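ok trying this again, last paste got cut off
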Amino acid sequence: MILRHLISILILPFTMVILVPRWLLREVPATDAIWASGSAGEWIARVAGAVVFVAGFSLFAWCVSLFAREGKGTLAPWDPTKRMVAVGPYRYVRNPMISGVLAMITGEALFHGSLRLAGWVATFFMINCIYFIALEEPGLERRFGDDYRRYKAAVPRWIPRLKPWKGD
């Protein structure tokens, strides 16, 4: 089970959070950095970026553990959960794992002051919007039926609810 999770994490989030940003930051022109080097703004942004990254990583790790414990599967589309996961952060928003990954990339963009990484945040979000609407959600409806449809009707895709969904 651990190997299945590690493989899916290495192929999916690791690529999006580590490999793509490193590729985008290679040979970065000076005009990409929006913070003045050595300025107070740069250090504030670096600290904020680190905090946002750690918060995103924490959310992501929580979601992966819920997929393993509650869902009996992984984050990978080729090895999905066997049971619907609607606990923890999933009571507030349908895609907290992607929110965690977005937060990690946003943290990197802040930390580096990189417009390229900010563009990657927007691109990654749009790719996921299309993927979830076109493929993920219809697949979840087929797998989990009315339970997922009720959940989908009550829990927003991206903007968290103020109060947790209780399965009503």
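PB: full thing came through this time. The first helix runs from residue 2 to 11.
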